[in-house]
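Troubleshooting: if your tokenizer reports a length mismatch, compare your output against this known-good record of 224 residues.
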Amino acid sequence: MRTLLEEVIVAVYRSEHRAHLTLRWRGGELTEIDLVLPRSQPRGRRTSEDTLSLLPRLAALYPDEVIAGILNRQGRKTASGERFTAVHVGALRRYRGIPRFQPPAQPAQGDVVCIRKAAQILGMNTSTIHRWLAEGFIAGEQITPGAPWQIRITDELPTRIVPEAPPEYIPMLETTLKLGVSRQTVLQRVKRGELEAILVTSGRRKGLRIKVVDYQPSLFAATS
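Known-good structure output:
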């Protein structure tokens, strides 16, 4: 092209979003070209900041393929608008300098299982497990919506599921009356480990039983 062209003149009319090119060929012939300019510069494609902030927390608990499934269930997309795959997650994780998930060398006591597995181990249905999680009878964690629930099955947990309650454990209604607090407050304190609870699975009055001592001034000074 350099051997054929003598000069190229470019005139840009930004207010009209157009440009005019004049090509002067060797020998003196001219070629006129009009071009339409884009009205705005396209922004660079980026993964959402919300997804980027969530990735380190997920990578600490799950491998890339599980993370991809979680992000897809939440309706998140890659920078190019695609569904996430393990390859996408791995590339994004490496670009952000986020370490790959590594199982702990010495796992904590008890197995961490999903809700379905916990129901099989404890001989209950999944809806009961969901209710126990909500009530705080068993501890579980869901790091973000769409992520699997993590429930640790310890040797102690099955011992809290009994056919009959010892005398010191009383029903929920009696507990609320004795302590002068709401059912929700009792459940919150069970979840925080401030009250002991067991689950009675037989008889006419199945359900939670709470161990209440006669004198707990510091614990129940406030009835939040």
